[in-house]
Amino acid sequence: MDDFLSDIYTILFAKWILLQEVPDFETKVNEDYTEIHFYNKHADIEIVFNPLNIIEFKATNTQSGETEYYLHFQMKTLNHTMKLFKELTHYMKHIGESPTIKILLCCSGGLTTSYFAMKMNEASKLMSLPYVTEASGYNNLYYVAQDYDVVLLAPQISYLHAKACDILKDKIVLNVPPEVFAKYDVKAIFTLVKESLEIKKNQSDQKIPLPVMLDVEIKHKTLALSIFRNKQSIHVAYRVYDKNQEILLDNEVIKPIVNLQDICDIIDIARLHYPRIRYIGIATPGIIDDGYVSSTSLVGWETPERLEDVLTERYHLPVCICNDVNAAAVGYYSSQDQVSSLAFLFQPIHALSGAGIIVDNCLLHGMHNLVGEVQFLPLDLTEDKMTLSMSPEGCIEVVSRTLVSIISLLSPEELVLYCDFIPHVLPLYEEMATLIPKKYIPPITKVDNMQEYILLGTMILSTTQN
User: Fold this and answer.
1) Do 325 and 397 form a contact (C-beta atoms < 8 A)?
2) Kind and range of the H or E element at 448?
3) Is the pLDDT of residue 212 over 80?
4) Which residue numbers delimit the PTS EIIB type-3 domain (predicted)?
5) Domain coordinates in residue numbering, the chain
């Protein structure tokens, strides 16, 4: 599409939006019509028209301050743009119909908190507060808490507060004061929750880029994308690196469903800002077998053609699609200069694990690119892997046996672990020592930000494999 038609379509789209009825939301427009807001007490939906006909959709939870939906794209066709707006309005309907803050009240068994949770829900309705509260026993806390914003611990389990904070790093975890719990003082609880939400809203989450310790030659600008699931949304983080590994562009898209067109929109935006991008790398969960992708996070990736070929033909640039844990292994390896062999294990919550393996300075792939698919290991476990991955204790059982299997086969110099349910490696090390002599266990490193390693590794793989 030429610039003139793009300008016209963008103006028509802005006027079309203002004619749409969005139930339960009020509308506000700035003077030059470059910003349109739909808002209510639960959410602020912002539509911004930027230079070069780049349009942004952003949905912010007004209670938590979190961005729950973010998308930006350049106007190509009215049909495509209207379709994206309809996706946004569907999300707006969902956020407008339900309370935006979910509270989990936890005690040892769940019985003593059920009545308190009922009182809190009654008060929320009377006071028109956007809170919904449910009760749970401690045994299910860590898995259940993934769907909640705030976790309240009853006095009888307040001694577990530090452990809960370690494991539930992205949640607000609070102890309920004994006098508040004894009196069922709902007003005091809501005050505590509100103050904690305000503190979290004002905290900044600054990322420090990883250093590249190894001599990696990057000749041109590179676009790296990483696709991952978080709660009910898919996140696509992306960066543009220059030849000195400096980050020129750092952003992400957040949507309930991500398809191939969304990936193309991101590539188009990045190339619009940096036309001299020469390499594109995409890291995704799943098995990548000779360019064919099997991913549980994306819609439309299982194409009859090699996906790398489809994107290479579209952009006339080399495209590298890699497994996300393999990329993390390469990223970690490149950020240090101490070892030449390592295994990077990712154990997600209520999902199967995967590993990236580096031996003698080389990432192992194997036939069908199956190296590291440790989900297929026939481990001797007390329960199935999916059930065990729902608790910290279960994760230690699965991870310990998986790592011992890797040691037995490859004996790497270092083990690297990303697992939210295992905040410290000592219990893991002790469990592994019951399965294999201690002298054979290499150093175990726990990382807390896998995304940094994935993006760095994707950048390196896309430039060195093409």
Assistant:
1) no
2) none
3) no
4) 100-206
5) 3-97, 101-202, 221-464
